[in-house]
Amino acid sequence: MAWDIRADRPVYLQLVEHLQTAVVTGEYPLGARIPPVRELAGQAGVNPNTMQRALAELEAQGLVETHRTAGRTVTQDKCAVERLKQALARSCAGEYVKSMARLGISQPQAAQLVAEYKEEEQ
Amino acid sequence: MNEILACRGLTKYYDGMREKHVLDGVDISIPAGRIVGLLGPNGSGKTTLIKLAAGLLAPSDGAVLVCGMVPGPATRALTAYLPDKPVLPRNLRVRDALELYRDFFADFHEEKATAMLADLSINPTDKLSAMSKGTLEKLHLALTMSRSAKLYLLDEPIGGVDPAARDYILSTIIRNYAEDAALVLSTHLIGDIENVLDDALFLQNGRVVLAGSVDALREEHGKSVDALFREVFQCSANY
Amino acid sequence: MFGKLLKHECKATGRVLCPVYAGFVVLVLAACGMLRLTAHFGTVATEGPVTTLHANTWMSVLSGLLCIAVVLGMMAVVIVTEIVLIVRFYRLLGDDGYFWFSLPVTPAQHMAAKLLVALLWSVVSVVLFIGGMLAFVLLADDISDGAVVAELWDALRTFSVQWPVFGFVVLFIIGVLVSITAGTLQVQLACALGMRWPQSRLGASIGMYVVISIVVQVLASAGTIAGGALMLPQITQLTATQAVYLPLISMACMSVWYLVLCVVYFAATHWLLTKHLNLV
Asked: Are A45 and B34 a contacting pair at CB < 8 A?
């Protein structure tokens, strides 16, 4: 997944979101090693201090663990990841609802659109 | 000593032009482990500030300190300066330039430089006089960033290079990050380098008009530093 | 660090000067060779120190041209050397300075390195100049079967026995070296002063050189006149044997004067480069 850092929001917040998504989608599987700060910063094209801050935030959220010799790894805690997934999903849903409301589409209509969309996909 | 670069009331004017201060009472403190951007329009004093830190100019008033010392041979051993124009003698070959750096800078890592030059497709036998401006700038950058200095001063490092080279330069800056060193770069191409900076210092008419960490500025103003810059420095349109 | 500075300074100036010097040597050899050939095919008449050749026209013409070329070459060697050294220091306070002054080297070391290398090449150029003359002398000697050198050797021996003359020659050489040093340092000071007018640095540097020359000249003249006036009573009372030492003393005084100038120039330039460096 490409690092897409937008210009108008704080970098560190965007890094946190990107890392969270990577954990949830399994790009960084449970227990997997996370590359060192400088490498990640290089990949993302961002300041190493900012990347460090983002990783520290993830650690505070319990998604990442730091080991003295092994560096940083993703947590083994499936429940924590699941909780995060739900939180992110709820957040996306909230965005969708707000967008639809802005267009003047009622909630039943919005739900209908979701169902229709899925059918088209199949 | 954690304060790598300090300016206290730094003022610079040229004889015969005392009314126009190129730098006017600038106060700055840059600790180790920070990447700082010196942002401002042309003529705002960015290059002058960098040259004062490099010891190529003497202050008219106030002081500039590098690792607590006045710029001199001792600080130059700790400072890696990349000017905004190519300054190596043109009649040299690349390997002669490597020899120069090897001879004069104890903290020069030749293997690093050679690897970078290979990445940039620059051969040791190439003549400097035959290189394009962009290639010369890449050469200067490779040599400068191969030193383990305490203070890196890059004056407009991405100004004259193509976007691909720009990416390479920025990733080089990230890769070379050291916790005990500070990197100061001046530019007006803010959009490209914003994400790499820790802090931004806005200079206008020789004064610091805005300073802060990039993330704090984005949060406070709800826009990118680039957009903020355009707002702060907009050319007045009195139509 | 200073050694490295010297090494690079030599290399950089040598890159330009050595080909010039090599070319000159080749020219001298060619001229001598041509003259030798002409002499071989011509007749030689020797009247005392004067040796004349009578030979084929085209050979003579070629020999003559080559001789002129060598004379021009002798002047060129000295002039080119001075120009290269002056330009080098001037550029140090311009774009070149961005690199050289970013090195962990003191301004004194920069100045000393440039000075030593300037002295080196100046001496080399003078040696080549004399060598050019010597080549002709030896050639003439060779053609006249040893007559020329024999005359010179006689003259040299009669004079060198008297130690005042020997002393004079030694002091003369020292004087020349010190004056070359003073001249180089004067250029350095002029360039350093010229830095204060970044917009017209070249003009300012040249102007400063002229100003310094005038000031020094005035001081020297005043000093000489004053010294002469003061010493007049003693001079008129000198005996013949004592009077022989006068040239020695005047030579020594000149050397001391140039030495003082060297110190003043160096101190002033050093102060300017340390406290008021202004690279734009």
From this structure: no
Query: Chain B closest CA to C83's CA: distance in Å?
Result: 18
Answer yes or no: CATH 3.40.50.300 is held by domain B3-232: yes
ipTM of the complex: 0.85
Look at residue A63 and tell me if it is in a domain.
yes
Biggest CA–CA distance in chain A, Å, is 55
Domain that holds residue A63: 11-76
Contacts of B73 in chain C (CB under 8 A): 104-106
Domain count, chain A: 2
Please give the pLDDT value at position C43.
60
DSSP A36: P
Identify the sign of the CA torsion B89, B92, B94, B95.
negative
Other Cβ atoms less than 10 A from the Cβ of C117: the count is 23
Residue B43 has pLDDT above 90, yes or no: no
**Beta carbon pairs, B and C, within 8 Å:** 56
Residue A3 lies in a domain: no
Residues A100 and A61 in one domain: no
SS3 for chain B is: CCEEEEEEEEEEECCCCCCCEEEEEEEEEEECCCEEEEECCCCCCHHHHHHHHHCCECCCEEEEEECCECCCHHHHCCEEEECCCCCCCCCCEHHHHHHHHHHHCCCECHHHHHHHHHHCCCCCCCEHHHCCHHHHHHHHHHHHHCECCCEEEEECCCCCCCHHHHHHHHHHHHHCCCCCCEEEEEECCHHHHHHHCCEEEEEECCEEEEEEEHHHHHHHHCCCHHHHHHHHCCCCCCC
- Number of domains into which chain C is organized: 1
The pLDDT of residue A50 is 92
Mean pLDDT of B57-70: 91
pLDDT interval class at B239 (50, 70, 90): very low
User: Domain residue spans in chain B?
Assistant: 3-232
- Domain membership of residue A60 (yes or no) is yes
Half-sphere exposure of B115 (CA within 13 A, CB side): 7
CB contact under 8 A, B87 and C99: yes
pLDDT at C246 over 90: no
Neighbours of chain A (3+ CB pairs under 8 A): B
**A88 within domain boundaries:** yes
Residue range C100-145, pLDDT digits in tens: 999 999 989 998 999 899 889 988 988 888 888 888 777 776 766 6
Q: Which CATH number belongs to the domain containing residue A71 in this structure? A: 1.10.10.10
Residue C259 has what pLDDT?
Answer: 92
The partner residue sitting opposite A8, judged by closest CB among B196, B216, B218, is B218
Lowest mean pLDDT among B181-185, C167-171, C187-191: C167-171
